[in-house]
Amino acid sequence: MSELLKVRNLNVDFLVKKEQIHVVNDVSFDVQEGEVLAIIGETGCGKSVTANAILHLLPENARVSGSLEFEGKNLLDLNEHEYRKLRGTKIMNVAQNPVTSLDPLIKIGPQVKECVTRRYEPSSLSGGAIKNRVIEILSSLRLKGKNSSYEKYACELSGGMCQRVLIAMGVITHPKLLIVDEPTKAIDWVLRKSVVGMLERLNKEVGCTLVVITHDIPFAE
């Protein structure tokens, strides 16, 4: 296996009312292609901040230093356009706050479809094929059927259902790196098994590298 993600001496500070608050202190780790890495810790210890530093999703008052290499490139050297091109294609993430992460004005189906159209050339998949693919993955997460989520808006779904939609959006394009932040939050133990199974299949069958942020040690194991 070759090295996919290399984090060295990562530090993150936030400037709040002229005061510098240190949140992440000198974090280093490597992730090989096809590996699953769990970042475990209690709430507020900087797990999500570390993930968002990799994804370039921190607020403007954040100051990031160190090195974040993906496929040999330092992500901190990329401009916003280059970052956006990478995010949503080779790197996907499942955010911790599902309701606020979904567009309230667009139905769920088109939002998931957009992930596919961003990843592949428009000519490589027909509209019908994309829709079928979306319905298939929503079904695997119990989001299809009598109470189909495809035609609904985020406000019509529970927090747990929105969480599953984000997981569907994260895995549908088979990214090289998937960063998942608290994937079992707000879902019951039955769905938890489905989520674990889907992530395991994505890793073993497709070779997707996973970085999982969690405080749930049994889930990480």
Q: Could you describe the 3D structure shown?
A:
By secondary structure, the protein is an alpha/beta fold. It has one domain (3-220): P-loop containing nucleotide triphosphate hydrolases (Rossmann fold). Helices cover 37% and strands 27% of the residues. It contains 8 helices and 8 strands. A hairpin with a 2-residue loop joins strand 4 (62-70) and strand 5 (73-74). Helix 4 packs across helix 5 (127-140) and helix 4 runs parallel beside helix 6 (159-171). It is globular, with a radius of gyration of 17 Å. The chain starts with a strand and ends with a helix. 33% of the residues are buried.
Stretches where pLDDT is under 50 for at least 5 consecutive residues are none
Element-level helix/strand string:
EEEHEEHEHHHHEHEH
Beta-strand segment tally: 8
Strand order of the largest sheet: 2-1-4-5
CATH architecture: 3-Layer(aba) Sandwich
Q: Which radius of gyration do the C-alpha atoms yield?
A: 17 Å
Sheet with the most strands? 4 strands, antiparallel
CATH-defined superfamily: P-loop containing nucleotide triphosphate hydrolases
Fraction of residues in β-strands = 25-35%
CATH top level label: Alpha Beta
**Discrete helix count:** 8
CA distance, first residue to last residue: 21 Å
Structural class determined from secondary elements: alpha/beta
Number of domains: 1
In round numbers, the mean pLDDT is: 86
| Coarse shape | globular
- The name CATH uses for the topology is Rossmann fold
Q: Could you estimate the helical fraction of the residues in percent?
A: 25-40%
